[in-house]
């Protein structure tokens, strides 16, 4: 029997300053995500998009250094409810962004179903800021902290429980741009970070082996949150906060193959695709390639 999968788009661009990332879900759909997955072991329902309000033109930093807090909180609430509902039905949620602030809602919905949820945060950034530490006031730099219970109440209490995730259950892969407050938090909580340094030294294969075995032993489900800016901007230019020296498509592809083989994933999201900044939908196409591999496409 085929497993059910629910595709949920979140056209969110209020968690940061560059317009266009709201078109990410369309770009990924245009690149053929559904067709790709239907050829595999899934029965796909595309649920369309979660409503996101339009920027009010002010885009100001309110409520303690948080841009568009109200709108970001509202959409994440709706996303969390939908993810929760789909998981309740036994369907695998695949969330398409949109900026990374949507991980707040994805994780709120998913973690309700796992006492000990593991998270793989595949990203150039830690997204571990709060209003107090953020250099930008952009909520897309905060979702992982929010999920650990750190940040504005309107975000940490979505679906009425907090925290969603334990710091020791998180593995960050690909980090190369961390703000001072984020580094402090990583130290304080002793979080698992495979920065580009470790990836260069150990190779992606060993990094993924370690990460998978670590999470398999201690968690009861794993969410993959993949920010396309984890990849190198030479290869994946369609992102709002590019950082040079990133992961290659090959390394990322290998990571997806190893995750597919491990069968530890219980939910996933692909975020930060900005077609306005992209080169002929290359980044969305890359996302679809990674998604295909993650869900079982094989060479032989
Ligand atoms: N999901 C992302 N692309 N996050 C980028 C965050 C950049 C920076 N650390 C900030 O807090 O503003
Ligand atoms: Mn990032
Ligand atoms: Mn991110």
Automatic annotation (TrEMBL):
GO terms for molecular function: arginase activity. CDD domains: Arginase (cd09989). It catalyses: L-arginine + H2O = urea + L-ornithine. It is an enzyme of class 3 (hydrolase). The keyword NAD does not apply. Belongs to the arginase family. This is Arginase. It comes from Lentibacillus juripiscarius. The gene is rocF.
